[in-house]
């Protein structure tokens, strides 16, 4: 049913219906912004705008289901982000780990207050401390909601490499949560990995 | 209940993408938390781009209007004026081709301008206007002039109403169309050395060669002779054309020398 609803919206949007296009936009844009802001920092909003320009131009030629639609939009966004970062001549702005972790409770309180521990911004900031490839896989898999094949398609990697990167990213996050110093190390690792990533 | 295949597939997925611990799950859930209802950032810009892309006339019309500058308009007007002036001058001097001159003369006469009509030399060319029912110039012979009734209609009527068939019909139509100058159907072996100017069977002698053919054709419109010529023609190539000779003799009262040219 969801697929048929998506098909209806897509067809209507391709025929010029603004309401259907807005529905498609709202189904992707929040997750797209989270991905771009985590990976691209201050470039996110401009990259998102460029992404939707490209989406609008290519909307009439697109065909596929909802997963393919999301993968298509994220693929465009990632390409635009890479271009923007090249033009800017700088790497993604690293998140200040001290600021992110300032609200973290003491380790003794973790066991009873896990659910209240993270806001969306702080969770994304922690993911942003991962090496670039791991952060992208975690974001696309768990924030954007793409499956492994579509994540691999967005990143231009093999599915096996995506699974490995995702596994390592989650393990790194677990280490960062259990060992406060690991977060500091993770932040440093993030900077070094990003240089070579 | 999961089948064995499904359990294997699930086990494979768990092995490659293991479920994170509870704290990591909480972190991922927070990262993917639903957004608060309200306007989504960037929606207005995306809708503007969508409208611009799907608009049926995306600002192309004004561009076309602005590209037509006064300078280009003036150049186009000058070019049009030169063409019209040149055409008028050519029409006034009568130097246009026959059909064009005729058309120009007619059109300009309606607005009170007199220019020469079709020049004399133009009559030699088949560039005059006209149709099948046009009574002002439909003749196939340019020398007939514009006042003669339609020759084409006459020939068409002859073609549909004649009783002749085959080569005779063609010869009759061709002769009528060419006013007697056509030699269609004149083929045969019966000869006629002299003109037989006064012979009723002179047409039979048309199948012979030389001056006799011309004289016979011009002087005597002989139907019977023409019909008998077929008999002479039927034996062409067999040497002597005895029946044709006999026929010619009979038709000319013995004065014809038909067959004399067919002797080997």
Plain-language structure description:
The complex is a heterodimer of chains A (197) and B (264). Chain A is mainly alpha-helical. Chain A folds into two domains: 5-90, Rna Polymerase Sigma Factor, Chain: A (Orthogonal Bundle), CATH 1.10.1740; 113-193, Arc Repressor Mutant, subunit A, CATH 1.10.10.10. Helix content of chain A is 76%, strand content 0%. Chain B is 51% helix and 0% strand. Chain B is built from eleven helices and no strands. At the A-B interface, α2, α3, α7, α8 and α10 of A face α2 and α3 of B.
Order of helices and strands of chain A: HHHHHHHHHHH
Radius of gyration of chain B: 45 Å
Describe the sheet with the most strands of chain B: none
Number of helices of chain B: 11
The two chains with the largest interface, and their residue counts, are:
A-B, 48 and 28 residues
- Beta-strand percent range of chain A: under 5%
Number of strands of chain A: 0
Mean pLDDT of chain B: 62
What best-fitting shape of chain A do the alpha-carbon axes yield?
Answer: globular
Distance between the termini of chain B: 114 Å
Structural class by secondary-structure content of chain A = mainly alpha
Helix coverage percent of residues of chain B? 40-55%
CATH architecture of the largest domain in chain A: Orthogonal Bundle
| Count of strand segments of chain B | 0
CATH domain class name of the largest domain in chain A = Mainly Alpha
- Tell me the major beta sheet of chain A: none
Average pLDDT of chain A, rounded to a whole number, is 80
Radius of gyration of chain A: 18 Å
Percent range of helical residues of chain A? over 70%
**Amino-to-carboxy terminus distance of chain A:** 40 Å
Low-confidence stretches of chain A: 96-113, 186-197
């Amino acid at each position: 049913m969801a697929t048929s609803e998506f098909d209806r919206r897509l067809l209507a949007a391709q025929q010029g219906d603004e309401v259907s296009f807005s529905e498609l936009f709202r189904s992707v844009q929040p997750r797209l912004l989270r991905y771009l802001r985590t990976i691209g920092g201050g470039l996110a909003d401009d990259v998102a705008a460029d992404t939707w320009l490209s989406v609008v131009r290519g909307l009439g030629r697109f065909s596929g289901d909802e997963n393919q639609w999301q993968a298509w939009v994220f693929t465009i966004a990632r390409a635009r982000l890479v271009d923007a970062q090249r033009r800017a001549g700088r790497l993604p702005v690293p998140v200040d780990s001290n600021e992110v972790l300032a609200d973290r409770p003491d380790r003794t309180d973790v066991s009873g207050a896990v659910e209240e521990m993270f806001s969306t911004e702080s969770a994304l900031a922690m993911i942003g401390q991962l090496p670039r490839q791991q952060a992208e896989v975690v974001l696309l898999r768990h924030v954007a909601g793409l499956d492994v094949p579509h994540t691999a398609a967005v990143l231009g990697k093999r599915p096996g490499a995506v699974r490995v990167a995702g596994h390592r990213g989650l393990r790194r996050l677990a280490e960062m949560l259990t060992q406060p110093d690991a977060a500091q190390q993770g932040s440093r690792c993030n900077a070094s990995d990003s240089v070579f990533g | 209940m999961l089948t064995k295949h499904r359990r294997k597939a699930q086990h494979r997925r768990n092995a490659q993408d293991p479920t994170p611990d509870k704290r990591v799950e909480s972190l991922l859930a927070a990262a993917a938390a639903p957004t608060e209802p309200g306007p989504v950032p960037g929606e207005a810009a995306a809708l503007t781009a969508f409208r611009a892309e799907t608009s049926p006339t995306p600002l192309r019309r004004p561009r076309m209007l602005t590209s037509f500058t006064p300078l280009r308009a003036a150049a186009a007007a000058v070019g049009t004026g030169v063409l019209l002036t040149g055409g008028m001058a050519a029409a006034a001097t009568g130097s246009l081709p026959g059909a064009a001159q005729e058309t120009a003369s007619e059109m300009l006469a309606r607005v009170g301008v007199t220019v020469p009509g079709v020049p004399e030399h133009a009559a030699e060319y088949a560039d005059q206007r006209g149709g099948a029912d046009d009574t002002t110039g439909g003749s196939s012979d340019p020398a007939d002039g514009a006042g003669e009734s339609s020759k084409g209609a006459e020939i068409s009527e002859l073609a549909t109403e004649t009783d002749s068939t085959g080569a005779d019909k063609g010869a009759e139509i061709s002769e009528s169309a060419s006013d007697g100058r056509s030699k269609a159907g004149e083929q045969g072996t019966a000869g006629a050395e002299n003109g037989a100017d006064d012979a009723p069977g002179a047409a039979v002698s048309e199948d012979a060669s030389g001056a006799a053919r011309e004289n016979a054709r011009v002087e005597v419109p002989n139907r019977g002779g023409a019909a008998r010529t077929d008999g002479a023609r039927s034996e062409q190539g067999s040497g002597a054309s005895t029946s044709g000779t006999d026929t010619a003799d009979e038709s000319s009262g013995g004065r014809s020398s038909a067959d004399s040219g067919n002797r080997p």
